[in-house]
Amino acid sequence: MNVQFRRTLLDYATRPYRSAGLFAYKFAEGKLKSDPAFFGLLENGLLPNAERLIDLGCGQGLLASWLLEARKLHECGNWPPHWPPAPKINHIWGLELMQKDVDRARAALGDSAQFYQGDIRSADYGKADVAVVLDVLHYISYEAQEEVLKRIWAALPPGGTFITRVGDAAGGLPFYYSNWVDRTIFFLRGHRLNRIYCRTLDEWLEVLRSTGFEVRPLAMHKGTPFRNVMLIAKKTGE
Ligand SMILES: C[S@@+](CC[C@H](N)C(=O)[O-])C[C@H]1O[C@@H](n2cnc3c(N)ncnc32)[C@H](O)[C@@H]1O
Q1: Which residue from 84, 46, 54, 27 is spatially nearest to 155, judged by alpha carbons?
Q2: What Pfam families does the database record attribute to this sequence (predicted)?
Q3: Average pLDDT value for the chain
């Protein structure tokens, strides 16, 4: 059941990208299959039900496609019985620097989620119950990271959830390898290769706690040669 279900979810979440071109489709297929973050979010029940989820640095909107299809499968009774329920999220809003990715996200998902071109360092996030930032923070300076974390905190209600995946700069060779792969893909997708701004896991935990989040780490690199960690944070009271 589990293997069959995984194939079905991968197929359903990839399918919308057929209308966004071959690159978008192949990229979606490869990334959703090989990146443990997508199944990890569901298997570990990391995302609660929400009225509005913001995905900052959303790329071509893979997370939105994943969550929308997961919920549909859950609602029609095709869901692994030992998994937590798929989160019910009414509005998914993605913000992305690259217009090409925004176009691909819109072509694939139409009106089922909203995508905007903008810079997470300056765009208005509005309010949200859940914020997700997957593999993005290391592209912006340390000061900008801290500013973005404060603005995410301000966008969430007390008890709101913030999930981010980061590399652990203390992770040795796997960390350097994941940076190399990340920078290569970043370059192939049309970005300039600028400096990246990494922190050790302890430093990430410290900066999140000093922003006002309770946070716990969860390794999120199973089956890959990388050293990535999901940080699951809750906004504590004001
Ligand atoms: C490694 S990709 C991850 C994409 C997506 N989060 C995912 O997991 O599929 C990083 C993304 O962050 C975007 N990005 C980098 N800096 C950004 C910024 N300052 N504002 C908005 N998006 C940014 C990049 O354009 C790229 O799409």
Answers
A1: 54
A2: Methyltransf_23
A3: 92
Chain CA centroid to CA 209, Å = 20
Q: Which atom of ligand 1 is nearest to the CA of 119?
A: 20
CB atoms within 10 A of CB 123: 15
Give residue-wise pLDDT tens across range 165-213.
Answer: 998 888 667 667 677 777 777 777 677 667 789 999 999 999 999 999 9
Residue type for position 162: F
| CB count in 10 Å sphere of residue 22 | 9
d(CA 198, CA 177) in angstroms, rounded, equals 13
Residue whose CA is at the smallest distance from ligand 1 atom 13: 57
What is 2-235's CATH topology? Rossmann fold (3.40.50)
Q: 123-138, pLDDT tens digit by residue?
A: 999 999 999 999 999 9
Q: How long a stretch of residues is the chain?
A: 238
Average pLDDT over residues 67-74: 98
Distance CA 186, CA 99 (A): 14
Which of these, 186, 200, 154, lies nearest to 59 by C-alpha position?
186
59 CB near ligand 1 (under 6 Å): yes
Residue 58 near ligand 1, beta carbon < 6 Å: yes
